[in-house]
Give the backbone structure.
Amino acid sequence: MDMGIKGKKAIVCASSRGLGKGCAEALASEGVDLVINGRNEEVLSSTARELREKYEVNVIEFCADITSKEQQIKLIELCPNPDILVNNAGGPPPGDFRDWNRDDWMNACIANMFTPIELIKAYVDGMQDRKFGRIINITSSSVKAPIDILGLSNGARSGLTGFVAGIARKTIINNVTINSILPGPFDTDRLRNSFKFVSDKTGKSIEEVRKARAAENPSGRFGTPKEFGVACAYLCSSHAGYITGQNLLIDGGGYPGTY
């Protein structure tokens, strides 16, 4: 399927690796020019080079902590008129809520709630003026079914989800959609870090934890960044203009509910 977005411009946050990279690659495969972001210059440059060579699209590297207000201003100056915005940031660490202080909560909310809201605010009106815009927030399956050790993520990402629900119905009249993708267990650094956390707590080996976690999922495996990226590209496509304010759960069937 031709997604109808060749020649569009996209910003993909936290896209040097993992799910963000999967999204960037899927968009590049559709001929979308990119601004990709990460905090490790070497990894970011490698990803940019890979995408340029493989898909022959323009790729601008923005090495920065996107949660910084100062860096957000620089991003807006670098790319003032994107057609597509994919909000993404690393999730806060797992733990026991009794151990978290106010700073822990503020850091989680800045990364996973306030930053995407600020970027939406910066870009959504221009998208509406141009009569095309696709905004995707990468959140978590914990928005649908909270994960006990990820309380910081549960709270911050749910706040973003509630905010988006309120504005997504106001922008679609101008062909600007805002949706979220809720990943379950995907084979990324984030998931592997959680294995270590559980391993340290239980005394089981990381491999034992990994196998047990995979077996818990109806699919018997973890998702891949590539399949996640393809779903993102579809929601960014010209064919998805009638989808807004939705939370697409991609978790291999892990969520056991009907709704």
Remarks:
- Residues 27 and 214 are 28 Å apart (CA to CA).
- DSSP finds eight helices and seven strands in the chain.
